[in-house]
């Protein structure tokens, strides 16, 4: 039964994996064009495993931003995973803490959505870990493979640096964010972040980006609280 649950997680995640392939390839291709070493890109995909945070980190690395500020910025960008983790505590409450910590590394937007969609139908407690791993391992393996293929393409194909892939990084990041713009609070916070980032673009070490993200996150959290209070 656990094996069936694992492969069911793989199958259910297939549409998400297909959608993530262009972003993984583009991340690998952009690394050489942005002056980021191949081993740094590989480590980002293997150890960070977060598409939006990796794109942000690569842009900051290319700009020569200090490491501490990069870590802080990517942490803020990925704060939504804290909410995901809290939501996952209920269906996985039967697990010991070390196992929960290990599983949390593989938690992505795609696996969170896939797991909860299946959970809302029927997913017995004894099959939940296997199903989760099927989805998560499939996403992780796909992201690593796409990063390697993108790095090969970015470093081997001639003339790729003249294709304007730096702009494609911005486009890819926006495409990943678009599904979040269905909610008013996300639209408002995105506009605030954009305006503040524009006015603080000359701050040293890209600190304006961090400031803009923090303010936008506070606004989004406040709006979420107000909406909940209204309900």
Low-confidence stretches: none
Percentage of residues in strands: under 5%
β-strand number: 0
Estimated helix fraction: over 70%
What is the overall silhouette?
A: globular
Biggest sheet architecture: none
Properties at a glance:
231 residues; mainly alpha; 2 domains; 77% helix; Brnchd-chn_aa_trnsp_permease; membrane; transmembrane helix; transport
Overall description:
With 231 residues, this protein is mainly α. It has 2 domains: 2-178, no CATH class; 183-231, no CATH class. The chain contains 11 helices and no strands. It has helices at residues 2-33, 38-48, 51-62, 67-77, 80-88, 97-104, 109-121, 128-156, 165-177, 184-199, 207-230. Helix 1 (2-33) runs antiparallel to helix 7. Its main location: membrane.
Summarize the structure.
The protein has eleven helices and no strands. It has 231 residues and is mainly alpha-helical. Helix 1 packs antiparallel against helix 9 (165-177).
Q: What's the SSE blueprint?
A:
Elements: H1 2-33, H2 38-48, H3 51-62, H4 67-77, H5 80-88, H6 97-104, H7 109-121, H8 128-156, H9 165-177, H10 184-199, H11 207-230
Pfam families: AzlC
Main location: membrane
Membrane topology: Multi-pass membrane protein
